[in-house]
Amino acid sequence: MTSARSVPAPKNGVMDIAAYVPGKETAPGVERVYKLSSNETPLGPSPSAVKALTHVLDHLEIYPDGASNALRDAIADVYGLNPANILCGNGSDELLGLLCQTYLSPGDEGIFSEHGFLVYKIQITGAGAVPVSVPETDCRANVDAILDAVTERTRIVFLANPNNPTGTYIPVDEVRRLQAGLPGNVLLVLDAAYAEYVRRNDYESGIELVSGSDNVVMTRTFSKIYGLAGLRIGWIYAPAAVIDALNRIRGPFNVNAAAIAAGAAAMRDRDHVERAIAHNEDWRSRLTSGFEALGLTVTPSVGNFLLVHFDGTAKSAEEADAFLTSCGFVLRRVTAYGFPNALRMTVGSQEANEGVLAALKDFMEQA
Ligand SMILES: *Cc1c(COP(=O)(O)O)cnc(C)c1O
Fold first, then answer.
1. Structural domains of the chain in order of their starting residue, each with its CATH number
2. What is the mean pLDDT of residues 126-145?
3. Which is the most buried residue in 114, 154, 262, 352, by most CB within 10 A?
């Protein structure tokens, strides 16, 4: 039956989504702005990635390679993987969405942890499925709580390891225990967007687990340590059956030509990655002790960002954010992640990091 007044309505779930709000970019009225709100690298991309773009610009009339072969080959070479188990996407966000569209039907359930990346809930809901948030312990994913939340309707479990915005991780034994406890028909998605930054012996990004099981996938991104967030490139390492399904549902040219060329060059520049790791190691610990010296609490981070808590001080995150923004330092409010009184700061350049520490010192000392 049709009614004269009916209008197109989004399918169930879509209007339940709270749209993702990206980190701020500007500080009105301030000349020099340091954007420390989206975990971008202060080193920028590899110069060879930028150079690779010039060849692409001469032939923008040509469709990209729909299979992203050059990019998949570069990733496969560096990690020693079979390129047949790799699929590239328009940022890993696209891949997270494709996984939900592929594996979730209306009424199914998708699990993520309390302070997990917001995109999981958005994509689960958009697929018409039920988002299930599981409590964390000390800002860390709790494997027992996740396993307790699994029901007959569960089809997907998202785990960011390390997690954003907390910066915490769970060791490989815990990830294995999670996989072992899940029914075989539940897909475990290990989002390893910050894996390159982790320097811990008990950490594994997911490559081993994917290789050894049928229900685990790992997503990675070029947006963070590779400095190519603006080009939108992500990849997934997955069993052949998952790659086959995703290849049917994805857009035929989902990765653009610039992304393929620059991504492949960036992946092969390992020196650039090493420089970024060294810079991050140095400044993450200096910033952590600097914040602690001001009486602030910092969640121990293995990523390229810090979650700084204002609880127990006379100041609030909201006031601190306003003050820092007025000085040109744009950090991230994390209320939507369940931290109304904390700010997330990306490890920036030396100038940015020293500037934030100095500004925050002034702010904390204000009466
Ligand atoms: C930044 C980030 C991503 C990367 O998203 P892209 O779409 O590849 O830019 C994925 N997962 C988490 C947890 C992130 O913080």
1. 22-44+271-365 (3.90.1150.10), 47-268 (3.40.640.10)
2. 97
3. 262
